[in-house]
Amino acid sequence: MDVGPCNLDEIMENQTSFDLNLAIQRWREELGQSPAFRSENLDELESHLRDSTTTLQTRGLSAEEAFVVAKKRVGGGASLEAEFGKVNGTAVWLDRLFWMLIGLQVWGFVSGVIGLITRNALYFGLNSAGYDFKSHGHAFPVTLFTLVHLAGFAGSLALCWWLFCRKGQRFDRWLGRLLHRRATLALTFGALCPLSLSITPISWATQYLLVTSLGREKISGIYFSQSISGAIILLITTAALTWLTLFLARKRLRLNKA
Q1: What is the pTM of this model?
Q2: Are 218 and 134 contacting, i.e. CB atoms less than 8 angstroms apart?
Q3: Which of 49, 59, 230, 233 would bridge 149 by S-S if both were Cys, CB 3.0 to 4.6 A apart?
Q4: How confident is the model at residue 16 (pLDDT cuts 50, 70, 90)?
């Protein structure tokens, strides 16, 4: 197929065309991820951005060039967040407290489910394999318990990170729709409470099944191995969470200085 010079110019122009409205929408969505901005703040900033872009275009700049310059004049995300965070301080701290509580509950539920599944799989796996604690010792079960706990810990972190970082905006909008009305608020409360509490009776049931199906020697061996593994995991998870907290704090400080 022969493409003439005019057609080639049109194709290149379409490929490099700049959508100003889409760029402004993405810029607004990026700012909207911060709790420092209310809807009226974003409306005001968008109005300033559009006015500045229009003025720059009348001076001969392209839409893309005008948008870049106007965005710099309005201010960077970190500086705007710090400025509006002082004005909307109460909203910012309410949002932080909200996500901390959500994070604690989601983390507790996710880690509880993963831990319940992996522990019991290991319990009955050792029993099915006929592992003899007297002759083989506790080194192998302790290693297995530690690896299983670490896998559960990493899986919980990965799932929570995916939920809040990757799907945070969708999750926020979905939760906002549920909590907007009293009826859906009551239904959400009625569903989440039994769901969170369900881990405990399931754990009791599996423990009872374990006690009735295994002998006293195997139970004591499993519990002893798990207690040693739990001490090791406590040290590892404490160090990992402390490092993660300091890492995020340092990253936040760098963003605020930018």
Answers
A1: 0.48
A2: no
A3: 233
A4: low
